[in-house]
What we know:
Layout: H1 2-6, H2 19-28, E1 35-38, H3 42-50, E2 56-58, H4 66-76, E3 82-87, H5 88-93, H6 95-104, E4 109-115, E5 118-119, E6 125-126, H7 135-142, E7 147-149, H8 153-165, E8 170-175, H9 189-199
Parallel strand pairs: 1-2, 1-3, 3-4, 4-8, 7-8
Antiparallel strand pairs: 5-6
Helix pairs in contact: 2-3
Amino acid sequence: MALQVNQPVSREQAKVMNRFDITKRMVALLRNEEAVVGGIGYTNFDLWTVGHRPQNFYMLGSMGLAVPIGMGVALAQPRRKVIALEGDGSILMQLGSLATVAARGQKNLAIVIMDNGAYQITGGQKTLTEEGADIVAIARGCGLHQSVWAADESAFEELIALSLKEDGPWLIGCRIDSEKPKDTTERDPPIIKDRFMRGLGVK
Length: 203
């Protein structure tokens, strides 16, 4: 695994994976009530569909804030591992958050970027990752040295497992397909907030 982190594959070399499949693989590795913040859009919908956990927070309409919210949770509960799931379009809106995470050196935070090069939920318009922007390279430039493209599904699982065991912060880039989600997140913000707070033991 150290070899992949130190000699990462490029975005072009990374396999295009199925978003629902790798979300399911990630959730299957969660054993210790880790918090997961799902960014808006299909990434969020897949997290919902995989299976409800009280430690999941499903964002609705707040584009680009999965990493800042994940950072807040990680700061508030430093003994809990936190994963922020974000799309390429959303993280491009909040690149400054990567520098903040790096500067803080948030050990219990991992960021997973689902990159299909499109604003899929609004019609499939291209994002700048499709025009050459490399989120992993940008993250490394911000100081997130443990940033890497997942070469394939097996590598993704190994990286998630490593991020749950070792200190971060981590950023795992995933090339994903554009398959539509199987379901849509329940759109009830008070219930989502209440369930998450109870899942974190703060209510």
